Automatic annotation (TrEMBL):
<dbReference type="GO" id="GO:0044211">
    <property type="term" value="P:CTP salvage"/>
</dbReference>
<comment type="pathway">
    <text>Pyrimidine metabolism; CTP biosynthesis via salvage pathway; CTP from cytidine: step 1/3.</text>
</comment>
<keyword id="KW-0418">Kinase</keyword>
<dbReference type="InterPro" id="IPR000764">
    <property type="entry name" value="Uridine_kinase-like"/>
</dbReference>
<feature type="binding site">
    <location>
        <begin position="12"/>
        <end position="19"/>
    </location>
    <ligand>
        <name>ATP</name>
    </ligand>
</feature>
<dbReference type="GO" id="GO:0005524">
    <property type="term" value="F:ATP binding"/>
</dbReference>
<comment type="pathway">
    <text>Pyrimidine metabolism; UMP biosynthesis via salvage pathway; UMP from uridine: step 1/1.</text>
</comment>
<keyword id="KW-0963">Cytoplasm</keyword>
<comment type="similarity">
    <text>Belongs to the uridine kinase family.</text>
</comment>
<dbReference type="InterPro" id="IPR026008">
    <property type="entry name" value="Uridine_kinase"/>
</dbReference>
<dbReference type="GO" id="GO:0044206">
    <property type="term" value="P:UMP salvage"/>
</dbReference>
<protein>
    <recommendedName>
        <fullName>Uridine kinase</fullName>
        <ecNumber>2.7.1.48</ecNumber>
    </recommendedName>
</protein>
<keyword id="KW-0067">ATP-binding</keyword>
<keyword id="KW-0808">Transferase</keyword>
<keyword id="KW-0547">Nucleotide-binding</keyword>
<dbReference type="InterPro" id="IPR006083">
    <property type="entry name" value="PRK/URK"/>
</dbReference>
<dbReference type="InterPro" id="IPR027417">
    <property type="entry name" value="P-loop_NTPase"/>
</dbReference>
Length: 211
């Protein structure tokens, strides 16, 4: 049997708490060999577009992501090769000039709204999670986060949510729940689900050493 890293997919709607869940799992293994890849880092480059065009872009459609690059980079990590991960600039709605060098590790967490939508990515995953949080809670979290951390106004978050985020969530994000092995209600506060995941990952890692 060829040794290869474990891939955990963490999906869920915007504001569901998937980054928090992924970070909690990461924290438990920090001394071990684990890395996190956010699908958001792979939003397509938009430097050629005006700011007005960038604001109008639909960031909740599968085609907004450069999944070919994400797939290529995950495959490299699975072959224990390092990658140059892109960095996304939310305030300017485009890829930044920086990249981050990521060394391969034994556990790879892939996190993003549409990480379970692409069959090619799903096929690389050993465990698939969907963080399931009610829409009213998600919009409140998103409002606070986008204003505090992503340079948005109250009106712009509400406009984008009602015109694009909500319909895209219903059309593309929510249906990927059917691919999940585990559905995690409440996100990062769900200690039981996080402990179960950590135990499961440890078991897989131990089995890999034995095999
Ligand atoms: N259980 C929770 N209770 C309160 N706030 C939370 C909780 N989980 C996440 N948040 C906050 O909500 C926002 C969105 O959470 P995040 O994990 O980034 O969600 P996602 O990655 O799904 O968009 C963040 O500001 C985060 O700190
Ligand atoms: O330029 C951008 C890029 C993305 N978004 C929004 O981000 C969320 C996904 O991030 P989460 O951390 O999962 O919330 C997505 O719903 C996009 O609408 C953006 O507003 N601008």
């Amino acid at each position: 049997m060829t040794k290869k890293p474990i891939v955990i997919g963490v999906a869920g709607g915007t504001g569901s708490g998937k980054t928090t869940v992924a970070r909690e799992i990461y924290r438990k293994f920090k001394d071990k060999s684990i890395l996190m890849i956010e699908q958001d880092a792979y939003y397509k480059d938009q430097t050629h577009k005006t700011m007005e065009e960038r604001i109008k872009t639909n960031y909740d459609h599968p085609l907004a992501f450069d999944n070919d690059l994400l797939l290529e980079q995950v495959q490299k990590l699975l072959s224990y090769e390092k990658i140059e991960k892109p960095v996304y600039d939310y305030a300017n709605h485009t890829r930044s000039k920086e990249v981050i060098t990521v060394d391969p590790k034994e556990v790879i967490i892939l996190e993003g709204i549409l990480i379970l939508e692409d069959e090619r990515l799903r096929d690389l995953m050993d465990i698939k999670l969907f963080v399931d949080t009610d829409a009213d809670v998600r919009i409140i979290r998103r409002l606070m986060r986008d204003i505090e951390e992503r340079g948005r106004t109250l009106d712009s978050v509400i406009d984008q949510y009602t015109s694009v985020v909500r319909p895209m969530h219903l059309q593309f994000v929510e249906p990927t729940k059917r691919y999940a092995d585990v559905i995690v209600p409440e996100g990062g506060q769900n200690r039981v689900a996080i402990d179960l995941m950590v135990t499961k990952i440890r078991t897989i890692l131990e089995e890999k050493v034995i095999l």
